[in-house]
Write a sequence for this structure.
């Protein structure tokens, strides 16, 4: 029996905004710090934090690519 998995979210078109590397790093660090305060028993909070981390990772990768740190 195979269970269908629904993605957390389906990314839409990439945002036109790409933060600078220092801003992206700061925001990623803040998101990670916020993760430490999320209650493991609060499903909605876990989902919100997972989405926030996803957004910050995407911004960090975009900033890295814009900074010339990635070939893809």
């Amino acid at each position: 029996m195979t269970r269908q998995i629904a993605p957390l979210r389906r990314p839409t078109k990439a945002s036109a905004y790409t933060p600078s590397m220092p801003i992206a790093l700061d925001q990623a660090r803040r998101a990670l710090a916020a993760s430490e305060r999320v209650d493991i028993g609060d499903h909605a909070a876990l989902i919100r934090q997972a989405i926030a981390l996803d957004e910050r990772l995407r911004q960090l990768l975009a900033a890295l690519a814009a900074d010339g740190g990635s070939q893809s």
The first helix runs from residue 21 to 35. The mean pLDDT is 87. The radius of gyration is 15 Å. Residues 7 and 15 are 20 Å apart (CA to CA).
